[in-house]
Automatic annotation (TrEMBL), chain A:
Region feature Disordered, mapped onto this chain: 23-50, 694-737
Residue span(s) of domain Transglutaminase-like: 456-527
Organism: Halochromatium glycolicum
Signal peptide (UniProt feature, chain positions): none
Residue stretches spanning the membrane: 80-98, 105-123, 152-169, 175-193, 213-231, 604-626
Residue ranges of coiled coil: none
Keywords carried by this UniProt record: Membrane, Transmembrane, Transmembrane helix
Domain of life (superkingdom): Bacteria
Lineage: Bacteria, Pseudomonadati, Pseudomonadota, Gammaproteobacteria, Chromatiales
Name of the protein in its database record: Transglutaminase-like domain-containing protein
Low complexity composition-biased segments: 711-737
Length: 737, 318
């Protein structure tokens, strides 16, 4: 044993000279002692500190790191991912060939290299991506350096951190399930590492560790759920580290130029979900979800008015007078992160979501960019009249770019001659789009410096943004105040969840014109083109899900129906996940309190509830853990009951006495119980040690035990001295109580 | 800290209020990590991160209870250790079991090994205790600890134990060969002769005695015969008849040194086939040999009252 120890010491000897000297003298001392006295190996505190993990534990740690960081590796830049994989590969190889273990200087160099790689990839060492990349690189280096059990433990602790930060990169249920699985793996490894004395590693040990990890996780789950529901949330971040620096968010932007919407249309991502309080009277293809409003153009690009002109303070003055005609529609919207201020609402919002304001052009703006899933309630009126266009608005709605051509003026001039009112001009224009060979295509030919002119008279192929922008420009030429609205058109109803889903592919652009007597009126020039001229492109069919709602054709085939059903189910689950897991917020918590009638307590109520529920859960586990195993044998069970009955009067069975001695003691302490106890003991001995064929006998025995109810005070028989008082027998040792 | 008392059989059972528990270094690191992830997830309203944090916190909490329950209800009995020479490790065999038949994870004893305690089975763990003084040493208490199941918490309990070990004096590195024969017809000349023999390095020579019929001619001291001093037989080690008397007062030095020398001599005498007796002040052990006799002598040495009144304190399990 001692020799083995020396060998292991030689192997671990650190590099430096002074260490070597120390090590050698220590060794000599060890040897000297070992010669004289055969020392048992000293197993002191170092049992926990410098114990070596075995090859299995090292390999498991490497594998866990690789698998656990997989989602992050896919999200990070290639060079960082490859570096991390290389480090993990070396770590795995060291287990087989210990000679590969890099020394201190090489590790330092690798650390520097890792830092430089991250710096090179992200030009920073902080922020969400760079920080995560750096953390991952450092964890991989730590794994490379790990030699002791303690190192591996530290690794598993940081691994927990790594698991959590990956939720900054994705929030799908699959990722969550994967992370929980990895957590169970890490717990199993921790459990395995905590075993100190083991002769060799066997498969059974892993099974035991895995079993333990599963039990612990299962027992922790109720507590985690209680905390998740009741732990008070913050309404606003305490600090902002700008974590979202590089997350690519698809969605509308605040300007319109050729191509900005066609990118969205091919994106299958969700934009938002809507749940109406009551079934809406509106068909899905008439649901225009308004977003940014564009006023200014330079002939190519459309942008909103500068913010100060739509300032909230003056907005109320300049807002046209509104007359609401239809009943308001009430609904909740669960908006995916957009990194923008807009909240999407139908037509004219009447009731505003919390923390949002309405601008003069009826945009709903949140006070902060929507960086996380946001749930808001709103109500809208789709039918209304307005009057009183302010002079400033009128000027802005008639602004013309410099690149208006003669052809355009001539076209508009013709319409103006033929019509008496603005409404008729609009009719004329829509008629023009319908009759002229305009095509709807997502792949329009490239347009030159003057896209409007080229589109109107040459290519005549484009999609909503082309139609909306050229229509608006033509209206302005005709003297009709007009503006462009960006947003989404349509929604898909999911019968399973009752939600309407709006996708990025439903992004749309349309125009609004001011008609005296009616106010701002929505005109969708895209809808004016003849239906047969809409190009149903191949990718709509193949991607199915990405086809804009307005072009979706009802599936008739059985397979199509089935697929659609599956899609609805997936959507419903997804929506539930987003609503109840990702979007669970302090609002939901307060609603829960409301249901319980504790709304007056607010956050305190949550804290109290959380404490109570958490304690209840823990108490349950305490009871489960304290539970004593019941013997299988019914005779044994009833015998134990006999002991418990006697323990109540201070005569518990001793561990080291058999039934005979127990009976003797009972007789000594409580002569009044002698007969009944003797009968039970005798019956027990017969059942235990003499084979019996009748199964009814042990039932008799149990009945006998149940009838045995010793009273705590001996019945009037005076024969007993002071020694027979309950509790004073030799049995009442503290250990057995 | 409160100790678990033992009953008249020397069995201590760990009760609920005798168990202490604290996080280990890993446990503290785990807590710090949880705090960081909690703050981060709360701040960024990341519900999944929050859930994973709570799950990890729940695992830690549940493991704390498992750790505590791993000691609860354990019965501990420590047997007396075999006598050892001072300076060596006394090895106590500790028996652990759960009388109620619950399954226990790995439990460690300070100074000893670790082992799981399966339901309704007895685990035996050896505890080594360093010895610093001769005489009977009681270990008084055992430290039982566990880091089951995750190593995030360490629970421990002290149990009292009546187990003790008799520590013999450490044998001196070297000692004069066990004293001369004290047979009935020993002569002072022979003693001197024997001393001469001893000095000349004849290690096996022990002494001489008068000739008895049957002695081998090779053992007859012919030089003595030539000086006409009669037949004298030389005694060599290995002769079962050889007998020495060891005496505390034969030697110089302080008491402990003298006891050490005697210990070495007893071991040497036992190694050679010599019969030896021991005189310690008033206590006299008649000559004899064999394992039993050796133990008796060594025990007498171990229990010999100390010169100074520096009562050796009982070492704890180290």
């Amino acid at each position: 044993m001692a020799a083995q120890r020396r060998i292991s010491q030689r192997r671990d000897r650190p590099q430096g000279r002074s260490y070597r000297l120390w090590s050698r003298s220590h060794e000599a001392a060890q040897q000297n002692r070992a010669d004289r006295v055969a020392e048992p190996p000293s197993t002191g505190g170092d049992r926990y500190r410098s114990r070596r993990p075995d090859a299995w534990q090292l390999s498991a740690a490497t594998a866990l790191l690789g698998l656990g960081a997989l989602p992050l590796l896919l999200a990070l830049r290639l060079q960082v991912g490859l570096f991390v994989l290389a480090l993990l590969g070396i770590s795995a190889a060291i287990v087989r060939w210990p000679r590969l273990q890099p020394n201190r200087w090489l590790l330092l160099a690798l650390t520097l290299l890792g830092g430089l790689l991250v710096l090179d990839a992200y030009h920073s060492l902080v922020g969400q991506n760079a920080g995560s990349a750096l953390l991952l690189v450092m964890i991989a280096l730590k794994r490379l350096e790990s030699r002791t059990v303690r190192d591996l433990r530290v690794l598993m602790v940081t691994f927990g951190f790594l698991l959590v930060i990956q939720f900054l990169f994705g929030e799908s249920p699959w990722l969550a399930a994967w992370m929980v699985l990895m957590l169970i793996g890490a717990v199993a490894l921790l459990a395995d590492l905590s075993v100190a004395g083991r002769p060799e590693h066997r498969l059974a040990d892993w099974r035991a560790a895995g079993h333990r990890a599963l039990i612990l996780t299962a027992q922790a789950m109720p507590l985690a759920l209680v905390l998740f529901v009741l732990f008070p949330r913050l309404d606003a971040p305490l600090w902002d580290l700008q974590l979202d620096d590089e997350r690519g968010v698809t969605g509308l932007t605040d300007s319109l130029e050729p191509g900005s919407i066609s990118e969205l249309i091919v994106s299958g991502e969700d934009a938002f979900r809507v749940r109406f309080d009551s079934p809406p009277a509106l068909p899905p293809d008439a649901m225009y979800w308004r977003g940014p409003v564009l006023w200014r153009t330079n002939g190519q690009r459309w942008v909103p008015r500068p913010e100060q002109q739509t300032d909230a303070a003056s907005a109320a003055d300049r807002m046209p007078t509104r007359t609401l005609i239809s009943e308001p529609i009430r609904y909740s919207v669960l908006l995916e992160p957009t990194d923008q201020h807009w909240l999407f609402a139908l037509e004219l919002p009447t009731q505003l979501p919390d923390g949002a304001r309405l601008t003069a052009d009826f945009q709903l703006l949140a006070s902060k960019p929507v960086t996380d899933l946001r749930l808001y309630r709103a109500s809208s009126v789709v039918d209304y009249r307005m009057s009183g266009l302010s002079a400033m608005d009128e000027r802005a709605a008639l602004q013309l770019p410099s690149n208006v051509t003669e052809r355009m003026r001539a076209l508009v001039g013709g319409w103006r001659e033929q019509s008496g009112s603005a409404a008729e001009v609009v009719e004329q224009a829509l008629g023009f789009f319908n009759r002229a060979p305009f095509r709807y295509t997502l792949l329009p030919p490239t347009l030159g410096d003057n896209p409007t002119d080229a589109f109107l008279f040459e290519t005549r192929a484009g999609f909503c943004e082309h139609y909306a922008s050229s229509f608006t420009l033509l209206m302005r030429l005709a003297g009709v105040p007009a503006r462009i609205v960006l947003g989404y058109l349509g929604a898909e109803y999911n019968p399973l969840s009752g939600d309407y889903l709006v996708r990025q592919s439903d992004a749309h652009a349309w125009a609004e014109v001011w008609l005296d007597g009616q106010g701002w009126v929505r005109v969708d020039p895209t809808a004016a083109i003849a239906a047969e001229r809409i190009e149903r492109e191949l990718r709509f069919d193949t991607l199915g899900r990405t086809a804009p709602a307005r072009f979706r054709i009802e599936e008739t085939s059985a397979l199509g129906q089935l697929l659609r059903g599956a899609r609805f189910l997936a959507d419903a689950l997804d929506s539930g996940w987003k609503n109840w897991v990702l979007g669970f917020s302090s609002r939901d918590q307060l609603r829960l309190l409301d249901r319980l009638g504790l709304e007056a307590l607010r956050e305190y109520g949550l804290a109290i509830l959380m404490t109570i529920a958490g304690s209840a859960v823990m108490l349950t586990w305490v009871l489960v853990l304290a539970r004593q195993p019941r013997p299988r044998d019914p005779v044994q069970r009833c015998w134990q009951q006999f002991g418990r009955r006697l323990a109540r009067i201070g005569l518990p069975p001793e561990r080291n006495e058999g039934p005979f001695h127990y009976l003797e003691r009972i007789q000594q302490a409580r002569p009044d119980l002698e007969q009944s106890a003797a009968a039970i003991v005798e019956q027990y001995l017969r059942l235990r040690y003499r084979p019996t064929t009748k199964p009814s006998t042990h039932r008799d025995f149990c009945r006998q035990v149940r009838r045995f109810r010793p009273s705590s005070r001996p019945s009037s028989r005076p024969s007993s001295g002071p020694s027979s008082r309950p509790g004073s027998g030799p049995s009442s040792g503290p250990a057995s109580a | 800290m409160r100790r678990c008392p033992h009953d008249h059989d020397g069995i201590a059972t760990i009760g609920a209020r005798r168990i202490y528990i604290l996080p280990t270094a890993t446990g503290f690191a785990f807590g710090a990590m949880l705090f960081a992830t909690l703050l981060g997830s709360l701040n960024y309203q990341n519900n999944l991160g929050l859930f994973l944090t709570f799950l990890m916190a729940g695992i830690a909490l549940v493991s704390m209870h498992h750790c505590w329950y791993n000691l609860l209800g354990l019965s501990v009995r420590c047997a007396d250790a075999e006598p050892v020479f001072c300076g060596r490790q006394a090895r106590f065999r500790v028996e652990l079991w759960d009388w109620r038949g619950r399954d226990h994870g790995e439990v460690c004893l300070r100074g000893g090994g670790c082992g799981p305690i399966p339901a309704s089975a007895h685990a035996e763990i050896d505890v080594s205790v360093a010895t610093f003084h001769r005489g009977p040493v009681q270990i008084d208490e055992l430290l039982i600890e566990t880091r089951h199941p995750l190593g995030l918490f360490r629970a421990w309990a002290w149990t009292r134990t009546p187990a003790q070990v008799l520590v013999y004096p450490a044998p001196a590195p070297e000692a004069p060969p066990p004293g001369l024969g004290t047979t009935a017809d020993h002569r002072s000349e022979a003693k001197a002769e024997a001393a001469a023999w001893r000095d000349s390095g004849a290690e096996d020579f022990i002494g001489s005695r008068g000739y008895r019929p049957g002695d081998s001619p090779r053992q007859i001291d012919w030089k003595v015969l030539a000086r006409e001093r009669g037949l004298v037989t030389k005694e060599f080690a290995g002769d079962p008849a050889a007998e020495v008397q060891l005496d505390l007062h034969q030697h110089r030095g302080n008491l402990e040194q003298r006891l050490s020398v005697l210990t070495r001599q007893i071991l040497d005498a036992e190694a050679r086939p010599l019969r030896y007796g021991l005189r310690l002040g008033t206590e006299v052990i008649p000559a004899g040999r064999g394992e039993h006799h050796k133990r008796r002598c060594l025990e007498a040495l171990a229990r010999y009252p100390a010169e100074f009144d520096s009562a050796p304190s009982a070492p704890r399990a180290a």
